[in-house]
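For reproducibility, we list the full input for the DOR complex.
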Amino acid sequence: MTHDLLIHGGRLILRDGDREADLLIREGKVASIGEDLEVSPDCPRLDASGHWVFPGLIDPQVHFREPGLEHKEDLASGSLACVAGGVTAFCEMPNTTPPTTDPAALQDKFERAAGRASADHAFFLGGTAENAEAIGEWESLPGCAGIKVFMGSSTGNLLIEDDPTLERLLRSGKRRVTVHSEDNPRLSERYAGITEGTSVIEHPTVRDVECALKATRRLLNLVEATGRPVHLLHVSTGDEMQMVLERDLGDLVTVEATPNHLFLAAPECYEVHGTWAQMNPPVRDVHHQDALRRALVEGPVTCIGSDHAPHTPEEKAKPYPHSPSGIAGTQTILPLLLTAVRDGWLSPQDIVRLSVDGPRRVYGIENKGALDVGCDGDVTLVDPSVTEDLPSDWLRSRAGRSPFEGTALAGWPVTTVLRGQIVYHQHELVGVPTGQPLTFTS
Ligand code: DOR
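The corresponding predicted structure, in tokenized form, follows.
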């Protein structure tokens, strides 16, 4: 089935500026941009008057929990949250049950996604001591986003905590390795020191700045030694941003920031939301938040990923530290970034740079782009007149709760188009899920 669509009358958010123009998608690809484009009378049309036309976002870090943890989320519900938030492609993490650590587990995820994923998708392979050599052969399997390493333990049991094992993995394969950078030996010491009754407010002290800094320092040393490119996930400290700038390893190191660290701050987030604001690495104080916001514009942040990591209310109700870490967030990336545009610290072009071009460049994703002619016709229409407080019943993740409920909005993605087909409109899925595996340049 081919998909043509004329999106007319909207304000296109392009890489180098905004433009009032029509956008024509032919056979699922962006075909042309211009004023009053002529099309045949039977070409489907989408009236975008009064709307902003953004390229579909890419969320390069989500945990959709399937297989094994479907009580928290699955590929259908997680990808529904994606398209409900204007996200048309996602890269999913390997800490499922079982973890995605070999080609059979990877293949299983693609089979599960077929006909159930509403957005285009790729899956990561998880690095372990056992697969540290073989994984270099598997990283370029079709649809594989690359290798993910947990240097510090978080949800699940994936972990590489020592430098010799990490170095073996870095020397096997060539694609960019994606890393959760917290130092596990230090984390173990600090968790051992937690006393009965410790509150979640202490989470940024338990998993302190030094846990993150120490791991990132170790990792950058290994990057220098091996020449292997890495991507630092969900960086939570201004200190690490500074370290990346000072070490100046160029394109060998790319950096992700999450909306959670950019739009929440300690201690208020824990006082107000309790364990619903608990994630790894932790949301820290306003000084780190300010440094991360600056790093979006001045460097070194390359992209934004949600680290969508849902858990159930029952799980989140456990007393700290038994409450699991993770916040659902793929659906709120764009709405939150729109509030930053309203508040003057980001531009619409920053959104395109950080949420489309950034992830595309970090992972070498093919066919996706910032409304470039020839790229997939992935679009999200934002209604800027939606300025109410975010109601919980608009959210689609199975987590059922977000610390961003009640946020005063500055626009909302009302219609999402995937390869020329309207897939989500006015809070409803349209048709059956048609997400396809992503392809990569390397
Ligand atoms: O808070 C987190 N939750 N951080 C991670 O790295 C993993 C994630 C999860 O899977 O729950």
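Residues 63, 95, 154-155, 180, 279-280, 307, 309, 325-326 surround DOR (CB under 6 Å). The two ends are 28 Å apart (CA to CA). Both points were considered when choosing residues for closer inspection.
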